[in-house]
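Shipment paperwork, digital attachment
Item: protein structure file
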Amino acid sequence: MHKTWARVAVAALCAVLLAGCGQPGLGVASDVGGHKITDEQAASAADLLCALVAVDGRAASRAMINKQALASLIDLELTRQYAKKEKLTADPTLVTELSQQGLTFVDQLPKKNREQFKDLLAEISTSRAILLAAGARLTNQPINLQQGDQLLQAGGMGRLKFEKSVKIQTAARFAPDKKGWPGEGNGSVSVAKSKPAKAALVLGQDRSEDQAWAKALPASQRCGG
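Attachment content:
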């Protein structure tokens, strides 16, 4: 009886505090295999994604953008850890080439977001170059951007196997799924339609919201619109 009440008390305390009992820690949005993504980093990425949504002429809820931005940071960290384990490196020339593809519209962003976007774009391009290298190794093919989708898919499958061994612990406010991905889904690379969305690359999967609903949200709760 005492043990039962003790378990109830602990559960109640966890629900109130949220800083422990399965949570990644105070000031931490997500812990990915021991690497902590801070609230500040997640908020900064969300601000950038919010700016990208506005440039794209769309609207989205800030809540969804927050989840997508964190999912993207988790995605990048998993690729870094995968590269370290498999001794994969990104070809600098390829990273530059991939980055150039996303810089064509950077001037459309607010000035305060431009350098941040360039830095994050370099990280994203490095991540993609690593997955291309992984795909080339797994399929025994040379790295060729003309076969980029095929190589990315193969590299992604290799990373997915690795990912199963990594513990992801995400703060409850991001509504993580059982694996720890925010918003009940991952933020892996997706093919987007518009140029700004393509430039974002892994900055959130394309989980479209009803535009009329999103645009009707208060300004403090939406991006774009």
